């Protein structure tokens, strides 16, 4: 699918707490910042995809958010929808937009997301647990999101001898990148160490506090267009070279395996459609609700051998200056997890690296990169491959 | 070292009335899953069985998720299995579980194949391991009985 679709423009709010703004208010702020940053005119947006913004608040009725947004923008799209696939929503939006553009339905599609995140201690953990686990066969056992990811970590430790210290290395690496990103929540703080991660408060074994992403709020916008349109906005668009998706399960106890959750199948499809392999990638941006995710998904995406994800992160290869940078914006672990919009951040960064607009953290070699996001409890997967 | 025990029905009711901690969530009974809960009340673990696939499955559905066969029966299982994975929860998400911290959230794999989400009861939480043999036990939850697991005796 080489060079038939491109990312023309991206914009993202700084993650934070915005107590005076509803999910929809955040949407309007995302739009305001996007229009201020790029010289986009109403005729430049032919399609619009949005996601309900209040899921993480324990339920949402804004399932018509795309209608409100296109009216507010004053546009009349040829292609529009409100869709939701959790953290993979935005990866799948880009894929849906690409299909519409290739089919000639619309020349440009604005993919947009905004998210609230309830405070974990203020009933947030319960409403989130209710949302992500089976009402009858899981929730009555006291399901807790960190504990579900921790089950994936425990199984990886059993099968491959991975250690809690190796999971901590993922958080250490992400913090190093966040210290180079002024938009990251942890910018201006200090480096982490494996010891600091392990000494932080225990949450659910083997995870401590710093193995968990930072619950915040925010949002982002991505304009997907034909290559010709993209070049009107930027001299270096991020071309979409390949894409793949796979939907494995909904509830974690139904996953076929906790060390092969379906990420591989999305990755395989993305590599096939790009005519490229893992060895062609210069970097990866991988959805990291918890430290375990990048470690396991590096393996599933065949970016390192099965069972060696721990050694990969321990080697320092993912950090600034390393051989294979991962989550160069700080990841959800140190940039911040913006609730319903969290699946935006890694796509925005993947595109920025390819477009050469990543500031102090711009990689020397960023010709081809992979972005993997997932929704639910590692339930459904989207892999995108961007290139110059 | 925290020893977990199954509360007797009477003591559970007492603790609810004497304590602001809400009752733990009770599963909703769907008509096609009723035999699961009826068997639990009799101290047995019974799951839907597809004779075409020769396999039990969890959770109960109105069709076999491998072949869509709707002509299903119910089969009592051994109740034995192994811990597929687990985590010891140190910060409870639910007010009703706050007195249980630290508790074990586990996925167990039954001898017959299906996996279930469960707690591991009646053991020191620090002793739980992946691959550890377990057996079913039952917890009174309000007016229901739900399956739980404990180390194999």
Which runs of chain A of at least 5 residues are low in confidence (pLDDT < 50)?
A: none
- The CATH superfamily of chain A appears as Thiolase/Chalcone synthase
Distance between the termini of chain B: 20 Å
Order of helices and strands of chain A: EHEHEHEHHHHEEEHEHEHHHHEE
Count of individual beta strands of chain A = 11
Task: Label the structural class of chain A.
Answer: alpha/beta
Counting DSSP H or I runs of 4 or more residues, the number of helices of chain B is 2
User: What is the percentage of strand-forming residues of chain B?
Assistant: 25-35%
What is the N-to-C succession of helices and strands of chain B?
A: HHEEEEEEEE
With strands numbered from the N-terminus, the spatial order across the biggest sheet of chain A is: 3-2-4-7-1-8-11-10-9
Largest interface: A-B, 41 and 37 residues
Q: Span from first to last CA of chain A?
A: 13 Å
| Order of strands in the sheet with most strands of chain B | 6-5-4-7-8
Global mean pLDDT of chain B: 90
- By CATH, the architecture of chain A is named 3-Layer(aba) Sandwich
Strand content of chain A: 15-25%
Structural class of chain B: mainly beta
Helix content of chain B: 10-25%
Indicate the percent of residues in helices of chain A.
25-40%
Q: Which geometry of chain B do the CA atoms define? A: globular
Name of the top-level CATH class of chain A = Alpha Beta
Task: Describe the structure concisely.
Chain A is of the alpha/beta class. Chain A is 35% helix and 17% strand.
Keywords:
heterodimer; A: 388 residues; Peroxisomal Thiolase, Chain A, domain 1; nine-stranded mixed β-sheet; two-stranded antiparallel ribbon; 35% helix; 17% strand; B: 153 residues; mainly beta; five-stranded antiparallel β-sheet; 12% helix
Describe the structure.
The complex is a heterodimer of chains A (388) and B (153). Chain A is of the alpha/beta class and 388 residues long. Chain A has a single domain, classed as Thiolase/Chalcone synthase (Peroxisomal Thiolase, Chain A, domain 1). Chain A is 35% helix and 17% strand. Chain A has 13 helices and 11 strands. A 9-stranded mixed beta sheet of chain A has the order 3-2-4-7-1-8-11-10-9, sandwiched between helices. A two-stranded antiparallel ribbon of chain A has the order 5-6. In chain A, a hairpin with a 4-residue loop joins strand 10 and strand 11. In chain B, the strands form 2 sheets. A 5-stranded antiparallel beta sheet of chain B has the order 6-5-4-7-8, with helices on one face. Chain B has helices spanning 9-18, 34-41; strands at residues 46-50, 55-56, 73-76, 80-89, 103-110, 115-119, 133-141, 144-151. Chain B is globular, with a radius of gyration of 16 Å. Chain B has one domain (29-151). Chain B is built from 2 helices and 8 strands; from the N terminus they run ααββββββββ. Chain B is mainly β and 153 residues long. Chain A binds chain B through residues 120, 125-126, 128-129, 133-148, 150-155, 157-158, 201-207, 251-254, 258, and chain B through 24-28, 30, 33, 58-59, 84-97, 100, 103, 105-107, 115-119, 130-131, 141, 146.
């Amino acid at each position: 699918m080489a060079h038939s679709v491109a990312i023309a423009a991206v914009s993202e709010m700084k993650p934070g707490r915005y107590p005076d703004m509803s999910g929809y208010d955040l949407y309007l702020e995302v739009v305001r910042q996007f229009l201020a940053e790029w010289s986009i005119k109403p005729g430049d947006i032919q399609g619009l995809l949005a996601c309900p913004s209040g899921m993480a608040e324990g339920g949402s009725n804004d399932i018509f958010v795309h209608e409100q947004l296109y009216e507010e923008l004053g546009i009349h799209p040829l292609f529009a929808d409100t869709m939701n696939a959790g953290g993979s929503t935005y990866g799948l939006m880009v894929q849906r937009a690409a299909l519409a553009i290739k089919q000639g339905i619309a020349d440009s599609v604005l993919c947009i997301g905004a998210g609230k995140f309830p405070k974990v201690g203020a009933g947030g953990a319960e409403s989130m647990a209710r949302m992500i686990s089976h009402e009858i066969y899981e929730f009555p056992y006291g399901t807790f999101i960190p504990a579900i990811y921790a089950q994936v970590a425990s199984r990886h430790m059993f099968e491959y001898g991975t250690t809690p210290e190796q999971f901590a290395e993922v958080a250490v690496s992400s913090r190093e990148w966040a210290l180079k990103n002024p938009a990251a929540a942890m910018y201006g703080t200090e480096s982490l160490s494996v010891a600091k991660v392990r000494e932080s408060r225990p949450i659910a074994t083997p995870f401590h506090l710093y193995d968990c992403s930072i619950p915040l709020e925010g949002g982002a916008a991505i304009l997907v267009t034909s290559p010709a349109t993209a070049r009107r906005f930027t001299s270096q668009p991020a071309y979409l070279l390949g894409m793949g998706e796979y939907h494995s399960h909904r509830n974690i106890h139904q996953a076929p395996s906790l060390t092969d959750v379906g990420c591989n199948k999305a990755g395989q499809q993305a590599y096939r459609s790009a005519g490229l392999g893992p060895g062609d990638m210069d970097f990866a941006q991988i959805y990291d609700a918890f430290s375990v995710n990048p470690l396991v998904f590096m393996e599933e995406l065949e970016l390192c051998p099965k069972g060696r994800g721990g050694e990969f992160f321990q080697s320092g290869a993912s950090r600034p200056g390393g051989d294979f940078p991962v989550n160069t914006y700080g990841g959800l672990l140190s940039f911040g997890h913006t609730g319903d919009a969290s699946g935006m951040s890694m796509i925005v960064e993947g595109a920025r690296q390819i477009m050469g607009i990543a500031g102090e953290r711009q990689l020397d070699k960023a010709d081809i990169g992979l972005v993997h996001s997932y929704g639910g409890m590692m339930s459904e997967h989207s892999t995108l491959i961007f290139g110059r | 070292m925290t020893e977990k025990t199954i509360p007797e029905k009477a003591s559970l009711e007492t603790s609810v009335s004497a304590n602001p901690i809400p009752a733990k969530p009770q599963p909703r009974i769907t008509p096609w899953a009723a035999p699961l809960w009826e068997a639990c009340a009799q101290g047995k673990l019974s799951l839907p069985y597809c004779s075409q696939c020769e396999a039990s499955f969890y959770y109960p559905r109105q069709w076999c998720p491998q072949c869509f066969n709707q002509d299903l029966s119910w089969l009592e299982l051994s109740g034995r299995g192994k811990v597929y994975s687990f985590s010891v929860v140190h910060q409870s998400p639910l007010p009703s579980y706050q007195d249980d911290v630290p508790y074990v959230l586990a996925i167990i794999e039954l001898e017959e194949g299906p996996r279930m989400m469960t707690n591991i009861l009646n053991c020191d939480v620090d002793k739980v391991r992946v691959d550890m043999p377990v057996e079913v036990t039952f917890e009174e939850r309000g007016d229901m009985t739900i399956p739980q697991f404990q180390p194999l005796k």
